[in-house]
Amino acid sequence: MRERPLTRNIRPGRPPPDLAATLRVGGYQAARRALTRMDPAAVIAEVAASGLRGRGGAGFPTGRKWSLLPKAEDRRPRVLVVNADEMEPGTFKDRLLLEGDPHQIIEGALISAFAIGAGTATIFLRAEYTLAAQALAAAIAEAEAGGWLGRDILGSGFSLELRLHVSAGRYICGEETALLSSLEGRRAIPRAKPPYPAASGLWGDPTVVNNVETIANVPHIVANGAEWFRGLARGADGGTKIYGASGRVKRPGAWELPMGTTIREIVEDHAGGMRAGYRLRGLLPGGASTDFLLAEHLDVAMDFASVEKAGSRLGTGTMIILDDRTCPVAMVHNLERFFARESCGWCTPCRDGLPWVERILAAIEAGDGQPDDLALLAWHTQALGPGRTFCAHAPGAMEPLQSGLKHFRADFERHIAEGGCPWK
Amino acid sequence: MALNADELAEISRLARREPQPHGAAIEALRAVQRRRGWISDETLGEVAQVLGMTADELDSVATFYNLIFRRPVGRHVVLVCDSVSCWIMGCDELRGGLETRLGIAPGQTTPDGRFTLLPIVCLGACDHAPALMIDGDLHGDLDPAKLDRLLEDYR
Ligand SMILES: Cc1cc2nc3c(=O)[nH]c(=O)nc-3n(C[C@H](O)[C@H](O)[C@H](O)COP(=O)(O)O)c2cc1C
Ligand code: SF4
Ligand code: FES
What we know:
The complex is a heterodimer.
Chain A: H1 19-24, H2 29-37, H3 40-50, H4 62-67, E1 78-84, H5 93-100, H6 102-116, E2 118-125, H7 130-145, E3 161-166, H8 176-183, E4 207-211, H9 212-224, H10 226-232, E5 240-246, E6 253-258, H11 263-270, E7 280-284, E8 293-294, H12 304-309, E9 318-323, H13 328-342, H14 348-366, H15 373-383, H16 393-407, H17 409-418
Parallel strand pairs in A: 1-2, 1-4, 2-3, 5-9
Antiparallel strand pairs in A: 5-6, 7-8, 7-9
Helix pairs in contact in A: 2-6, 2-9, 3-6, 3-10, 5-7, 6-9, 9-10, 13-14, 13-16, 14-15, 15-16
Chain B: H1 5-16, H2 25-36, H3 41-51, H4 55-62, E1 76-81, H5 84-88, H6 91-102, E2 115-120, E3 132-134, E4 137-139, H7 147-152
Parallel strand pairs in B: 1-2
Antiparallel strand pairs in B: 1-3, 3-4
C-alpha cells in the first residue's frame, strides 16, 4: 500500500474530520511529541534532515529557511505565515488540503511555530476559497477550545495565537513579501530583498512564510522521522507530492504520489491519459509560470532537479496539458493576459512590458502579426527576465513565453505568414 | 448611508487587533462590503476615518484588490474563470452563454439588479474546468447548456 500521509484523512465530497475524529486517528500526536519531548532546535534539525523543500513553487529547503531567523538574543517576536493564497493558474492542490483536513494544517502550523519560536501565526487564505475558510475557522475554534491553540499549550509553556486572514483577491498576494504588505493593510506590493522576511517581515518582525503543503508535511516528519520521509520519495527530494493534471485528460484531478513520480505516470495512470481524439502536445509542469515541456519529456521525474534539467521547473507540481487541437499561440496569449492583468504595477518593465507582450500576442492570434513580432517577444523575455524586475512575477510570466517561442516556433510563424489562427 | 453601530464596532474590533489600525484595512472593507454589497465613497471615507487613514489612502488599497467593489453590484456576483485550464476547456463559450442569457457584458449588471458578471483568475478548480463562482459557491464542469438551471437558484 502506497503511503499518502497528507491525504489519508481526506474524503473528497465529505466534510473534513473534526477534532474528535482527528484525535482518534492520531492527529496532534506529533504536536504533543514536539512540544513536550523536543526542543525547537531538534524539530528544525529533523525537518532539515528530511530534505523537505518548499511546496510553494521555489523549492527552498524548509529546515534551512527556519534556521535563517535571528539568534535568540534578538528579542523581537517571531511570526509564522501559512501561504494559502493559491492563485497560480492551473493549481488546485492546497485547496484539497485546506478543505479536506484543516486540523492537519493547524497541527503543522503549531509545530512549525514552536520550532521557530513564533507566538503568532497567520493563515493567509485567498478570498474565493470559501469552503476552506469555513473549515479552517471551525477547526481553529475547536483547536482553541481543545487546548491545542492559545496559552501554555499542553503545559509546555508555549503559546500560539493562530489567525485566519481572508484576502480580497490579487495573484501577487502570493509572493511572500507582497503578502506581508497585504497583511499590514496595504496594497500588495512586493518589498526589496534583502532584508528577507526572516530578518524583517510582518511589521518588521522576523517572519517565516511557508506554503500550505509544506506546513502539512511537518507533523508527519516529526511523527515518523526524517529517514521515513526520505524513503517516501523516489529521488533526492524527500516526501510525497500532491500532483495534479488539468486540460483534456480523461480524469483531471490531484493525487498524492511519491516525490519523483514521472510525468507519464501522472498523465497516463492517474489522469487516465488523453481524451479520445486528443494527443498531448506539451505541458506546463507546475502551473502557469513554468516553461513548457513536450511529449518527449514524459519520462521526466517530477522532482526539483529532474524538471529543471529538462528545462522547466517543478513549480506547484500541478500540470496543465496542451493538446494537439488547442492553439499554442492562443494558450500563451491567455497566460500573458493573466500576468499582465495581475501585475502589481510597481516596476516599469512588468507594468508596461506585460501589456505590450499581451497585445503583440493578441495581434498575432487575430492575424495582424508582423514578421518582427517574434524578435520583439524574444526581446521581452530578456528585458523582463530574472534580475530585471522588482519581484519574480514578470520572470515567471516569461517562462511559458520563452519556451513557447522555442517549442512552438512554427505555429507562431504560421499565424504571421497566413494572417490568422490555423485553429480557428 | 452612514455606518451603523454594528459596523463601527466591528471595524474598531478589527483595528484593535493590529499594531496599527490601518493594518485592518482589508478586513474592514470586506466586513462592510459583506453587509452592503459594495463600498461607496461615503462608506470609504467613514471606514478610513475609523482606521486613521485618509480616504485616498484607503481608496488606493480598495482599488488594488479584485474583490473589493467600488461600484454597485447586483444581488448575485458571477465570477467566471478565464485562466488557462478553463480557457482550454471552453470558458469563452461559457462566458458567451452567460452574456447572451443575461444580456450584459463582463463588468456590467443586469437592469433588474439581479446579476453582475465579472471575470476572475483561476478559481483553483481546474480539475472541474470550466468553472465559475456565484456568491462564493463554486460550480464546475459547466457548459452553456447547464446555465439556465444554474442561474435559477439565484433569484
Ligand atoms: C507572483 C508570485 C506568486 C506566488 N504565489 C504563491 C502562492 O499562491 N502560494 C505559495 O505558497 N507561494 C506562492 N509564491 C511563492 C512565495 O513567494 C514563497 O516562496 C512561498 O510561499 C514560500 O513557501 P515554501 O518555502 O513553503 O514553498 C508566489 C511567488 C510569486 C513570485
Ligand atoms: S515584477 Fe510586476 S508584480 Fe513584481 S513588483 Fe514589478 S510590477 Fe509588481
Ligand atoms: S483555470 Fe479555471 S479554475 Fe483554474
